[in-house]
Amino acid sequence: MDSLLDPITGDYVGGSTDTLANAVYLRLMTPLSGWWADPTLGSRLHELSRSKDSNRIDLLACQYAEQALQPLLQDGRASRVQVSSQRQGPGRLLLNIEVAETGGHIRHFQHQVRIA
Taking 80 as the threshold, does the pLDDT of residue 79 lie above it? Predict the structure, then answer.
């Protein structure tokens, strides 16, 4: 069991978790190759903050998130990952992420992405 990270603040909230919540959060928030212990951990979502706000960004954000969460499938902790996007307004995109854990539980996560 790991200490649970708050996806809004990034701080520990005092509780513990036995889900993939921390793994999903860390893989989406960490820039790709940004962690010294594992250069494959992270995503390219941070690059979108410098991108022009266009319709193709939605698809690109979903692809970046799926790539970042791919290791969960490869190491057997998840059996399926689905990502969809929803516009929250100019320069704001909400990723809706569904992860099916190998134990059968389906977890839902949301991740905010800023776009220039």
Answer: yes
Tell me the backbone φ, ψ of residue 79, rounded to 5 degrees: -105, -15
Give this prediction's pTM: 0.88
**pLDDT tens, position by position, 28-52:** 999 999 989 988 899 999 999 998 8
CA diameter of the chain:
40
Q: Which two tokens stand for residue 2?
A: 């790991």
Compute the distance between CA of residue 40 and CA of residue 59 in angstroms, rounded to an integer: 22
State how far the Cα of 61 lies from the Cα of 28, in Å rounded to an integer. 11
Residue type, 51: S
* Beta-carbon contacts of residue 66 (< 8 Å; ≥ 6 apart): 81, 83
89, 96 contact by CB (below 8 A): no
Alpha-carbon span 49 to 2, nearest angstrom: 30
Per-residue buried b or exposed e for 19-31, using 16+ beta carbons within 10 Å of the residue's own CB: bbbebbbbbbbbe
